[in-house]
Amino acid sequence: MDARRQRVELRCGGTTLWWGPASTARAGLGEVRDSACTPRGWHEVRARIGAGLPATAILRGRRWTGRCWSAADGTDADWILGRILWLSGLEPGRNRGGVVDTFRRYIYLHGTAQRQKLGTAASAGCVRLAPEDICAIFDLCPARLPVYIGLAPPSSPPPRRT
């Protein structure tokens, strides 16, 4: 995730396989619980939620409500749509453990109804994508896939999970 350009990129080696506009936190980047910031550094996909659901499925508490979003529902709410890739930090003291734990902060990549805000910092901490984009990358992102969030491409490989 390139927070400077507000876009998600899937890479294999030096090759970009997919990219799309995203939205990180309007409060900026940061790791502390209750900060409403998007955490930086190396993470991994800890859980994949929503396989097989419609792209506009409304999720609450990581479960499908049985409803699908429509324009009549509006875009003011912070809807979680389609799929969730729940992140877990890999860097103890930075984004793992204590008050900086990404997983305990419930930080996801997920679909949003606020398409007009993609490409800008507008979320409450998660990384938002268009519903069809989160569905497109969901099957390409297995559990334990390394995910980097920052202002520039990572300069080193992800740390090993202990």
What's the structural blueprint in terms of helices and strands?
Layout: E1 7-12, E2 15-21, E3 41-49, E4 57-60, E5 63-68, E6 81-89, E7 108-111, E8 127-129, H1 131-138, E9 146-149
Summarize the structure.
By secondary structure, the chain is mainly beta. It has 1 helix and 9 strands; from the N terminus they run ββββββββαβ. It has one helix at 131-138; strands at 7-12, 15-21, 41-49, 57-60, 63-68, 81-89, 108-111, 127-129, 146-149.
Features:
162 residues, mainly beta, 5-stranded mixed beta sheet, two-stranded antiparallel sheet, globular
Q: Using the CA coordinates, give the radius of gyration.
A: 15 Å
Question: Please, how many helices?
Answer: 1
Strand content: 25-35%
Oligomer: single chain
SSE series: EEEEEEEEHE
Strand order of the largest sheet: 8-7-6-3-9
What kind of sheet is the major sheet?
5 strands, mixed
Q: What is the mean pLDDT?
A: 93
The amount of helix comes to under 10%
Shape: globular
Contiguous runs where pLDDT drops below 50 for at least 5 residues: none
Distance between the termini: 23 Å
Structural class: mainly beta
Based on DSSP secondary structure assignment, what is the total number of beta strands? 9
Summarize the structure in words:
The protein is mainly beta and 162 residues long. 5% of the residues lie in helices and 32% in strands. It is built from one helix and nine strands, in the order ββββββββαβ. It has one helix at 131-138, and strands at 7-12, 15-21, 41-49, 57-60, 63-68, 81-89, 108-111, 127-129, 146-149. The chain has a five-stranded mixed sheet, covered by helices on one side. β1 (7-12) and β2 form a beta hairpin. It is globular and about 45 Å long. The mean pLDDT is 93.
